[in-house]
Structure formats: C-alpha cells, structure tokens
Model the fold of this input.
Amino acid sequence: MPRLPKVPLTWMLEEQDSNRLRQQYPDLWESPQKSCITCMFHRTGEKTFLWWNEDLSEPVLWECDCTAQWILHRFLLIHGIGKNYQRLGWNDAYAVNPATQYEILTYLDNADLYVDRGMNMILHSPDAGTGKTLMLMLAAKKLLKAGHDVFVAQMNTIVEMYTSGWREKADKDYFERRIMNCGVLVVDDLGKETGQNHIDFIDRLLDRVIRHRTANSLPTFASTNLTPEQLDSGYGRYVASLLTETCMFVETSGQDWRPKARERMQDEIARKLVRPLVIA
Done:
C-alpha cells in the first residue's frame, strides 16, 4: 500500500504562528490524533483513502500519514495558501498553455539565482479561468519546498494587515515580516481593487511595499487581468516602474479551465476519491 511522503519537522509552526491561525480560522484542524481532513478516520475508523496511484493509471488505497498532513496543512496556511490549492499539484495544470508552464518552470528551476537577484514575475491575461492563480499557488509551493520564505495574499488582505498594525504592535511586526521582508511575496489578482474602490492610500501602500522590496532584492510575484500598460496607468508610473524594472511578464492566455475542473471534482466525488494535501 503506497504511503504519503514525510514532511520536514522544521515545518511545524511556532506557538505565535499557531495562535495567529487559531484567530484566523476558528475551525482550525487542531490535532492529528483526534481527526484528519484527508482520511477522515474520525468518521470512518480507517487511516486510508482512495486516490490515483503514482503513475495515475488507477485508483488505489493509500495509507494516510495524518501527522504529516496536519503539519503540511498548517504550514501552507500560515504562508497564505488555502486548503483548495493545498490539494492541487502540477498534474492539475493540464489546461494551462505549455509555453506558460515552461516560462514559469524556467524561473523555478533556477530560483536561487532569480530570487537572489530580486527578479519579479507577473502572470497576466484579460481572460478569467486561464490558470493564473493556480500557477501562482503551484509556484509558491515549489519555492516553499525548496526552502524559500514565501507569503501569498490578495491586495485587500495586505491592506487589512497593514491597518491592523495601527492598533497592535504584534500585527505591525507581522506585516513587516510577512509583507515587507518575506523572501518572495505573491500577490493574487493585483488590480482587482482598482476602479471605484481604488484610492490613493492603496497606491501609497503599494509604493512603500514595492519600493522596499526592490531596494532589498526581494522578488514579488503577481497575477492580474491587467496588461503591463494598464498596470502603469492603474497604479501610477512610479509603482509600475519599480515592479516591472526587473520582471518576467508571462502571458497566461487560453480557455477557461474551470468547467473541466468542476467536472473533474464531480467525477472524483462519484468515485469516492480523496485528494491528499501536496507540497508540489
């Protein structure tokens, strides 16, 4: 019976991060001895689950390592990756343009060099459902596995984290650690906050974040529905110039893959297949 791989014990969270997750997620998975979100042994009585074998040729029973799944779940959560994307791997990027995948993997395969030089990456396409967010999350997980410090957030979350720091020093310190100084900052759906809700405050905040990160060779990844030209007009010349100064622009065009993903999920449920949490 195949067994899920172990995860490094260094991925176990310190108490302050565990407490922060408890505040963010009231129903946080607390103990692998009491329950498991993968094999559901607390309901079934069995620490096994049905999923595809390693060559994806047929479903087989897997032995669950509940503790490893628990460590991985919390590790990815504290880095901003939610449970849905925790269950997705590179095999799930089948609908993403191969040329797009090649460009992203070229960066990731040489991540030590690119990250050290502060090389940014922006995935852009005006179309929805082309895999921009999926590829961002897979890139973030691959970088985490390689030992890079990564944090994923949407712009509205960054704003909330910043304003929380006005009231609590601990929140201010967390913003400095996770947004200003993390090894790779990943911003999903950049530009979604523009338009009616776009205010000078967001421009100034983004300018501060990107200026600091650029000065310290800390790369920023982003996905957006805006073109490079629209980024320039949407955020102003200085922010756009800082962000694009050392940047790989990756066009992520193609068909909307979400209908196929929905069909796949329905098929997995019908077959009683269970997706484990995966790092890459």
Q: What stands out?
A: Strands lie at 48-52, 59-63, 120-124, 150-154, 184-190, 220-224, 247-251. DSSP finds 13 helices and seven strands in the chain. The radius of gyration is 20 Å. The mean pLDDT is 90.
